[in-house]
Amino acid sequence: MTHSSPPLHKSTRQAISQIFKNLDYATLASIYCDEGGEEFWNAHRGPSERLGKKLARQVKTRLSPQGKSLYVGAGVAEIPVLIMEMVELNRHIEAYNLRTEEAELLNQTCKEHDLYIHPADAQEATGTFDHIWIVSVLNDPERFPELSALSYGRANPAAFDVTQFQQERETVFTLTDHCLKKLSLPGQVTTSVEEIPWISAWCEYQNLSYSIGDEDYPTAIVKDPICFIHVG
């Protein structure tokens, strides 16, 4: 089923563009890249804003006004969707980012738009949410190198660390459970295509029905295509 995606309000587009214009890309360069960060952002800031707005339009068609969303990992790429939810749907947002430096940097730029990103673990969030955003978290190559290598088909069978993988696997199962148990039913999960197995495994363990959207949508930074899963 194809969802029509009405345009974002002018005020939403302006707020998003203002934030992207004012972000401190020099500092972001060292956060996102060990080297070549300036070139990285020269190449990605435009697509991140453009594709982010397109994704925000898709999310808008799937969420109800005045609900609650939990963002498990919210960085530059999530800004358009976060702003859309707040401005157009009047939703309560709780966004988390384990990288304290990035969260503080984004908060400096976004504070005039009343957007705050907690420099903490999303597992600490309390209450329930009808929408959970968990994108490129469960297969993060920095936190889960062996699991990520297997997920993306890059694992070397001669050097694969099975013990490390098992530890990472248990950590991700726990992270998934602690976050998804905050989902009110029926609820919406936004995730990457590569993370679908974790979401579907959790739903099956909980004996919950779920349906995965037929379409996926491109992103600019991590480049993991995003999809929508309806749970319950």
Structure explained in plain terms:
With 232 residues, the protein is of the alpha/beta class. The chain has one domain (10-231): 3-Layer(aba) Sandwich (Rossmann fold), CATH 3.40.50.150. Helices cover 44% and strands 16% of the residues. It has helices spanning 10-22, 25-32, 37-60, 79-88, 100-110, 145-151, 162-180, 196-205, and strands at 68-72, 92-96, 117-118, 129-134, 183-192, 210-212, 226-231. The protein has a seven-stranded mixed beta sheet, with helices on both faces. Helix 5 (100-110) links the parallel strand 2 and strand 3. The chain is globular. The two termini are 18 Å apart. The mean pLDDT is 95.
Key terms for this structure?
232 residues; 44% helix; 16% strand
